[in-house]
């Protein structure tokens, strides 16, 4: 086992560029540079950067051709052109400013650095603190606050530029289904996509249990939709499904699409997790990764929009990666006053899901 070294991918631009053009409470207003600033200030305050096991790293410099691994030339040129024109609203969930193209490209470089660094053993784990997020972006278009698909682009970079063909597991814990990310690997048996996300069971949407992948990739797309309002214990119950799947899949690398918008005070998500849930999650994934793949995990920031809680969620992940005790902030105790478990609903969903997956997995 390598000595512990956690790479944290940072750049000042993530805390200053791509500023939403409209104030709160418009949906787009929440994807703000202060998401990054509040995390960095907090990590500084708790002394994280004094820890010798933590290394600050800049995003990898990439050129436009790298973006073409994941996106059509039309999409890349469209974002560049609108940025050059000063920006605009692509739809009610995607904004572009004069510096969006450069920052979104840098975000892809940040994710690549985080993931390549782990693959090449520069660090044991990594965390890319990047924005804009990526998991809703499709090959042909931006969507849901995402411009380019940071994780998909990184995986395609590993495949096409580094000839890295080992199995990769993506675990997406953002509150929302990573529709763009799922699409990239829907047919691909070498990439497992597991997404736990809030789902509106009264309306049709993507991200239901029966979207299992296609052709050779069937069984490797796993959606665990949950009702709004899940609490920490519910989250842990859902995560229990992960371990047998990862044990059977045997990934060489685990990538976490690290959205923190299931946090109870998030302005966009409707779940009720506290920061301790992310500590529990990261500790569990670290243990599994140490058993399966020499601890290789990359966290890549996706959503998470509450600037008071988000820094604690990120601290909770780092504390788990560094095997240190995490103390949740006292104000989170209030979050638990009105919480009720959704476990009976979750049992039904898990039963449906495991039945659908059983032809493709022996041990669930
Ligand atoms: Zn989200």
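Sequence proposed for the structure above (364 residues):
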């Amino acid at each position: 086992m390598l000595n512990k070294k956690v790479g944290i991918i940072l750049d000042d631009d993530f805390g200053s560029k791509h500023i939403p053009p409209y104030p709160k409470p418009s949906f787009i207003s929440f994807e703000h540079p202060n998401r990054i600033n509040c995390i960095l200030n907090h990590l500084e305050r708790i002394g994280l950067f004094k820890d010798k096991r933590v290394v600050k790293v800049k995003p990898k410099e990439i050129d436009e051709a790298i973006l073409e691994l994941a996106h059509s030339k039309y999409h890349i040129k469209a974002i560049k052109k609108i940025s050059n024109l000063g920006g605009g609203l692509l739809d009610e969930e995607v904004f572009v400013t004069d510096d969006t193209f450069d920052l979104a490209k840098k975000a892809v470089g940040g994710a690549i650095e985080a993931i390549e660094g782990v693959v090449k053993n520069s660090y044991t784990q990594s965390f890319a603190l990047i924005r804009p997020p990526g998991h809703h972006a499709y090959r042909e278009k931006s969507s849901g606050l995402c411009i380019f698909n940071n994780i998909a682009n990184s995986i395609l970079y590993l495949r096409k530029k580094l000839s890295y063909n080992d199995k990769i597991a993506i675990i997406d814990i953002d509150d929302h289904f990573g529709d763009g990310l799922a699409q990239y690997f829907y047919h691909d048996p070498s990439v497992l996509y597991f997404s736990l996300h809030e789902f509106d069971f009264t309306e049709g949407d993507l991200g239901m249990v029966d979207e299992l992948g296609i052709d050779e990739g069937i069984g490797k797309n796993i959606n665990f939709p949950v009702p709004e309002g899940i609490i920490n214990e519910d989250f842990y119950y859902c995560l229990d499904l992960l371990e047998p799947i990862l044990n059977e899949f045997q990934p060489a690398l685990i990538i976490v699409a690290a959205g923190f918008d299931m946090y109870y005070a998030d302005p966009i998500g409707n779940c009720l997790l506290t920061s301790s849930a992310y500590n529990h999650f990261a500790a569990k994934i670290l243990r599994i990764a140490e058993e399966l793949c020499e601890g290789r995990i990359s966290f890549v920031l996706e959503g998470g929009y509450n600037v008071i809680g988000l820094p604690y969620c990120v601290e909770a992940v780092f504390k788990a990666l560094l095997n240190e005790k995490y103390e949740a902030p006292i104000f989170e105790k209030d979050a638990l006053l009105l919480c009720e478990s959704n476990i009976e609903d979750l049992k039904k969903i898990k039963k449906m899901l495991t039945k659908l997956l059983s032809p493709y997995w022996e041990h669930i």
